[in-house]
């Protein structure tokens, strides 16, 4: 038997009571390094594209955010991406058992913020879809320093909390509830943003989300 830890219970309790959780060391250094190298190689090959906000007719190159992104393809994951994906599916299953969130699927993309770029305060749900249940970010920055900036700022009822984008850390928060922003960093900032979704509602536009 593998040793049991209380991590899933602790995370489920945190999401239930306050809506967010930070898990340092969620991915190993080796996994972080492989994902970061892949993200940088994709960017060097011009395979990341300037992020847009909204979707369908509302979709526009964004002045709210300065990152470049590339969606993961669930049926064509690289070995590095597979490690992330499997770890996230374990989280999904554990939280579904404890919280009955009914999360069915994961969508995820690399995000590369050049130095100075950020993402203005926002929520992660599209106006026309309640499919996104839980937002996640895993950071891929191996040696992030306190004065590098680039924190994820969660805007909570009792004030903001800043999470530095330290490699291997997973942040989870309720997509509908929690406004958040990315503060500009002094150096390039890499992450994987992911969303656990309920089954999409009829008529919504999954392909373009
Ligand atoms: C997002 C987002 C936060 C981060 O992609 O929607 O809020 O810390 N990302 O990268
Ligand atoms: Mn967001």
Task: Explain how this protein is built.
The protein has 209 residues and is of the alpha+beta class. The protein has one domain: Jelly Rolls. It is 23% helix and 30% strand. The chain is built from 3 helices and 13 strands; from the N terminus they run αβαββββαββββββββ. The protein has a 7-stranded antiparallel sheet with strand order 1-11-8-13-6-5-2. A 4-stranded antiparallel sheet has the order 7-12-9-10, with no helix packed on it. A hairpin with a 6-residue loop joins strand 3 and strand 4. Helix 1 packs across helix 3 and helix 2 crosses helix 3. The chain is globular. The termini are far apart. The structure holds N-oxalylglycine and manganese (II) ion (MN). The site of manganese (II) ion has 3 residues, from loops.
What's the helix-strand series? Answer: HEHEEEEHEEEEEEEE
Strand order of the largest sheet: 1-11-8-13-6-5-2
CATH topology, anyone?
A: Jelly Rolls
CATH hierarchy: architecture: Sandwich
Q: What is the approximate shape?
A: globular
Strand content: 25-35%
Helix percentage: 10-25%
Please report the total strand number as a whole number: 13
Taking the sheet with the most strands, its summary is:
7 strands, antiparallel
CATH superfamily: q2cbj1_9rhob like domain
Overall pLDDT confidence:
90
Q: Counting H and I runs of at least 4 residues, what is the number of helices?
A: 3
Low-confidence stretches: 203-209
Which class of secondary structure composition applies to the elements?
Answer: alpha+beta
């Amino acid at each position: 038997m593998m040793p049991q830890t209380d991590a899933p219970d602790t995370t489920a309790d945190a999401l239930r009571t306050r809506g967010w959780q930070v898990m340092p060391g969620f991915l190993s250094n080796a996994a972080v390094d492989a994902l970061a190298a892949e993200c940088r190689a994709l960017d060097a090959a011009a395979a990341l594209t300037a992020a847009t906000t909204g979707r369908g007719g509302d979709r526009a190159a964004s002045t709210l955010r300065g990152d470049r992104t590339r969606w993961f393809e669930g049926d064509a994951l690289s070995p590095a991406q597979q490690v992330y994906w499997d770890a996230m599916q374990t989280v999904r299953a554990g939280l579904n058992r404890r919280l009955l969130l009914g999360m069915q699927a994961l969508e995820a993309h690399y995000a590369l913020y050049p130095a100075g770029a950020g993402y203005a305060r926002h929520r992660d749900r599209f106006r026309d879809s309640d499919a996104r249940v839980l937002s996640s970010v895993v950071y891929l920055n191996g040696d992030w320093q306190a004065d590098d900036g680039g924190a994820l700022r969660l805007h909570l009822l009792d004030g903001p909390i800043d999470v530095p984008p330290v490699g291997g850390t997973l942040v989870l928060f309720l997509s509908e509830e929690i406004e958040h922003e990315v503060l500009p960093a002094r150096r390039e900032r890499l992450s994987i943003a992911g969303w656990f979704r309920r089954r999409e509602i009829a008529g919504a536009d999954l392909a373009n989300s």
